[in-house]
Design a protein that fits this description.
By secondary structure, the protein is mainly α. It has one domain. Helix content is 48%, strand content 10%. It has 8 helices and 5 strands; from the N terminus they run E-H-H-E-E-E-H-H-E-H-H-H-H. The chain has a 3-stranded mixed β-sheet. A two-stranded antiparallel ribbon has the order 1-5. A hairpin with a 6-residue loop joins strand 3 and strand 4. Helix 1 packs parallel to helix 5 and helix 4 crosses helix 5. The longest helix has 16 residues. It binds zinc ion. Zinc ion (ZN) binds next to helix 4 and helix 5.
Length: 197
Amino acid sequence: MEKFSPQTIYVPPITLAAIREIATSLRDILSLKDDQGFPTLRVLERMNDKLAEEDREVFQVVEDEELPLAYADMDSATGLIRLRNSCYQSARSGDKEGLFTISHEYAHSICHRGVKLHRFAADVSIPEENDAEIQADSFAIELMVSHRFLIGNLKRLGADVISDRFSIPLNKLREHIVRMHRNGDFGDYSIQLELPL
Ligand SMILES: [Zn+2]
C-alpha cells in the first residue's frame, strides 16, 4: 500500500475472476467458511516462524523511518514484505487499516512477485485491470471476505456492518463492491444497491 506516492504501477492484467479463483483457493486451504475472515497476519507470522530455522522470512517489521514513503512495501524480486512497526502494531491490535495493509502487501507478493513494475504519475490514466494497486486491493478483499458472503448478505447487512465484521476499511470495501457490481456479481439485484455506496 502506497501512502504518499503520486504514482500508478502498470502491470499485466489480471481479471477479477482470476483474482477470485486464487483468493478462494487460499481460503479453501484453511477450510474457512463463507462467514469467516482470512487470518493474514497469523498466516504470515506462522510462515516466518517456520522459515526462521532456515534464516528466511516472508515479512519484516522495520522502524517507521526506514519506510518514509509508505506504510509497507513488497520487493517484487524476492517477494519480501516490509511493514512499518506502527502498521504491524496497529494490525496486531485489530485496526482495520493495519490489517488491510498487510493483506494488500500479501496480495502484491502473490500477484506481483517477479513482475516488472512500471511506474506512472497518478494523472496518467491506465486501464483498471493493469493497475497493481487495484489488483492488490481486489485480491486483499476477496481474501478477507468471501465473495459469496458479500453477494448474499450485502443488502441485508449493509457495507458498514460487513466492513466492521471483516476488518476491511469501509472506503476500500465500497470501491470493491463497485468493481463487483461492474463485474455483474449482483445481477438484477444491483439495481437496489444505489451504487456507488
Ligand atoms: Zn500497494
